[in-house]
Amino acid sequence: MATYYPPFRKQSPYLPFGEQRTGRFYGKDILSVKQFNRADLEYIFGVAHEMREMVERIGTFDLLKGKILANLFYEPSTRTSSSFTAAMERLGGSVIPINEVRYSSVAKGESLPDTVRTLECYADVIVLRHPEIGASALAAQYARKPIINAGDGVGEHPTQALLDLFTIVSELNQVDGLTVTMLGDLKYGRTVHSLARLLSLYDVKLNYVSPEILRMPAEIIQELNEKNIVQKEFTTLDEVLPQTDVLYVTRVQKERFENMDEYESVKDAYVITPEVMREAKDRMIVMHPLPRVGEISMEFDNDPRAAYFRQMEYGLYVRMALLAMVLGRA
Amino acid sequence: MATYYPPFRKQSPYLPFGEQRTGRFYGKDILSVKQFNRADLEYIFGVAHEMREMVERIGTFDLLKGKILANLFYEPSTRTSSSFTAAMERLGGSVIPINEVRYSSVAKGESLPDTVRTLECYADVIVLRHPEIGASALAAQYARKPIINAGDGVGEHPTQALLDLFTIVSELNQVDGLTVTMLGDLKYGRTVHSLARLLSLYDVKLNYVSPEILRMPAEIIQELNEKNIVQKEFTTLDEVLPQTDVLYVTRVQKERFENMDEYESVKDAYVITPEVMREAKDRMIVMHPLPRVGEISMEFDNDPRAAYFRQMEYGLYVRMALLAMVLGRA
Amino acid sequence: MATYYPPFRKQSPYLPFGEQRTGRFYGKDILSVKQFNRADLEYIFGVAHEMREMVERIGTFDLLKGKILANLFYEPSTRTSSSFTAAMERLGGSVIPINEVRYSSVAKGESLPDTVRTLECYADVIVLRHPEIGASALAAQYARKPIINAGDGVGEHPTQALLDLFTIVSELNQVDGLTVTMLGDLKYGRTVHSLARLLSLYDVKLNYVSPEILRMPAEIIQELNEKNIVQKEFTTLDEVLPQTDVLYVTRVQKERFENMDEYESVKDAYVITPEVMREAKDRMIVMHPLPRVGEISMEFDNDPRAAYFRQMEYGLYVRMALLAMVLGRA
After folding, report:
1. pLDDT tens, C169-222?
2. How far is A15 from chain C (nearest CA, A)?
3. Which residues of C170-179 are buried (b: 16+ CB within 10 A; e: fewer)?
4. Between chains, do B110 and C85 touch, taking CB under 8 Å as contact?
5. Which residue from B160, B200, B162, B163 is spatially nearest to B180, judged by alpha carbons?
6. Is A3 in the B-facing interface, judged by CB distances under 8 Å?
7. pLDDT tens digits, residue range B252-271?
8. At what angle do helices C78-90 and C308-326 cross, to 10 degrees?
9. How high is the pLDDT of residue B2?
10. Strand order in C68-73's β-sheet?
11. How many CB pairs under 8 A join A and B?
12. What distance in Å separates residue A167's CA from the closest CA in chain B?
């Protein structure tokens, strides 16, 4: 008789003899920050913290030895791609790097579901970066293996939001009670939208500092209002900086402005320098999703409050945690 | 005295102490389906089946630990490249991915023999995809290490033909006695040419269903006639579908037609849908080399006869087998 | 309290419990041939020779298991990139391949220091290829982890010079007393400049054979004069070939000439053929940094004096040695 595989199942087909599969995220997709509650976040950050301790103590360990990650990037993102590659390799797993999909099957017209169903024949988990909103959800609908959304257009980038929050937890040892100020382009930045949503699970105060034309979208503000989050909007940083525990800086892109005079006037108002930071607390952190292009002066980099490179390192631990979790090893 | 290496030798220079090198393909190149007889195929499929059992039981194992594959792709092919990468990684080996040769040394004018002789200084086996017919044979002529042809232009793509046949063997447990129907573009598809050649080693009946202008080339038909293979040609599927055990679908590309009316009339006649498949046997399989672009409707994907994604998985096992064999481990 | 990392430190942050870190290059950058003295070279070549013996005996070993190399190439170089990848993999380590930086963060305007400081969050060592002179030194200034310069524009390519010298040492068992003839484009080739500098640490005679417009730069000649190295310049090879122990061939590029007649007359004078080589010693070697485009005829490849492919293999061992050394394992 022919050997027929069951067409769709949400678990790895490879069940090594006698192996335990545990954890609340085993076989799950990571698609959106909306899928997490506070207990989920505590669980993820607990595992991420263990990953950090293991990496600091022994550098790498073979928790995912023999597992394969398909790193499927429909648009380039060195930072995110490298971070997932390193995360898999530090856990002893292997990576299939796929960076040129625009030149290959997809260029021949293949659909995302077919590409994903092909790759899951080779890999145990798929990380997907795609320029279109909803791409990860579509992929997850067809895939038997776990999908991790590494950014889908202006949609979600959940692992970025998780690493942002893990940075805050790790650096300040708390989230409840903090004042978080988001600065720059709050209209188009999916990073700040996702982070704001995650923060709304905690008891925080949010300040939004932006030019008039780049304000936080009304639907985000309303969504957080319904959760009783105190939110205030400003156009300059100086009135909120002294009370800020977390300053989250984003890039204000020239292309967003029709009026270049307006851009010029705004641009310099939002540059973080050692001088500006004299007004801030001693114990607070400055974050940035990177890359930066002048929003934070390099003179500030050696200040202990400059957390943006450490933020990258926390991202490694969060992604190690997610990979281990969806593969049933944490 | 100077240390002079023997210039050309067809075996790995690395002979770990006390290690056994066995198997009929140790140190051999995999260049063409024409190099295999029936005993070879049984040997390959036996190893591939073992690979499958190992992967299903433990996911990965260290048979090729410490071996390095140079994955040299002069033209992009995500599917084939990923499959070989996964095959090597599931055997515990490592991969040097080389996807941009057009931008590098080759762009500076380096010859294929020089590129291959450089890469074999670093790797133990080379997988080569090249747009020109005969490229793999040329490379093999100069290389000391084994070359595996992963497609050379309109020439050969032997590992595709092997995985196609392994799919048939695995799904239907036999080849002798089967009726295989090839559908679509039979003129330009190297896939169907190579598969037809391999099938001619068995006692099969072949049906060719294609538009007039995309018929199976006369030299293939003659070659198989000499081996007493029963071959019949058709322009529509309905008369042969009920007797078909293996339906091999390929893409009919618009660009092949001068007359768009002819294309339009033909196009829909060759689309596989659940409705069309009502006329087929219950126990048969539908195959496709992928990517597909509408030749098989997605509604058919959940039918147990839809074997095209399983086909990808069989490809992994065949490539694992070939890598292990040419490196003397199977 | 917040967990603040010390901002800059020249050592791996991962110090596995009980692990020994030794060696004169532990945590160091490899930026320029100028940083080495003769004792350094002996140390490096000693380790490289051990690497060769290990590879020849067992193919690969886990000296750098768990270590991660970020292979950061701002311009393509299949040869150098593959060599470092293989070197890391033969030592049991992993690689993050980054070949498309022009399309990613850097395209968004990110500075090299930021890119390097991000990557060192994921990796233990960074290999950098960059089109601008001084790029590696800039990167090293900001990085906590070791930087290995894999070529920065017309500047340095120290690992090429080291592998060139290691080839000479391995093939001829000595450097002192040798006559080294450099042939071709001596003006623009950073390879010959770096090698000449390294050779000046030894007691060698140097012959420079080139067209008038492609002579060895005056500053190199002066630098070596100060070290009492005997240097002679020629325009044809025949008068020095019989005394030559090492013939280092480079490519004469058409684009360097304004006068095409001059190019045509010169071109053929510098092509190495079996006939030309009849005038050379029996025991000498011909080297070339590769890729070659006609400077050495393929008919010469099987001559035991043709060392240019072995040169690639020596490059693997030198790069294995450097990686092991800067990571404190040799």
Report:
1. 999 999 999 999 999 999 988 899 999 999 999 999 999 999 998 999 999 999
2. 25
3. bbbeebeebb
4. no
5. B200
6. yes
7. 877 777 888 878 877 777 89
8. 50
9. 40
10. C94-98, C68-73, C125-130, C147-152
11. 102
12. 33
Residues 6+ apart with CB under 8 A from C51: C316, C317, C320, C321, C324
Are the beta carbons of B83 and A122 separated by less than 8 Å?
A: yes
Q: Do residue B298 and residue A124 have CB atoms under 8 angstroms apart?
A: no
CB contact under 8 A, B7 and C99: no
What would the two tokens of residue A112 be? Answer: 């995302």
The DSSP code for B257 is: -
Tokens of A136: 């990860």
ipTM of the complex: 0.89
The Cα–Cα gap between A133 and A152 comes to 5
- Subunits next to C (3 or more Cβ pairs <8 Å) are A, B
Q: Do C55 and B14 touch (CB under 8 A)?
A: yes
Q: Nearest CA to CA, how far is A166 from chain B (Å)?
A: 32
pTM (2 decimals)?
A: 0.91
Contact residues on chain B for A117, CB-CB shorter than 8 A: 309, 312
Residue in C closest to B16 by C-alpha: C58
Query: Do the Cβ atoms of A289 and A191 come closer than 8 Å?
Result: yes
Interface test with C, best of A57, A73, A78, A166 (most C CBs within 10 A): A78
State the sign of the Cα–Cα–Cα–Cα dihedral B237, B239, B241, B244.
Answer: negative
Of B92, B293, B315, nearest to A108 by CB-CB distance is B293
Phi-psi region of A109 (alpha: psi -120 to 50; beta: other; left: phi over 0): left
Cα separation, C231 vs C225, in Å, equals: 8
Q: Residue A267 is encoded by which pair of tokens?
A: 């641009």
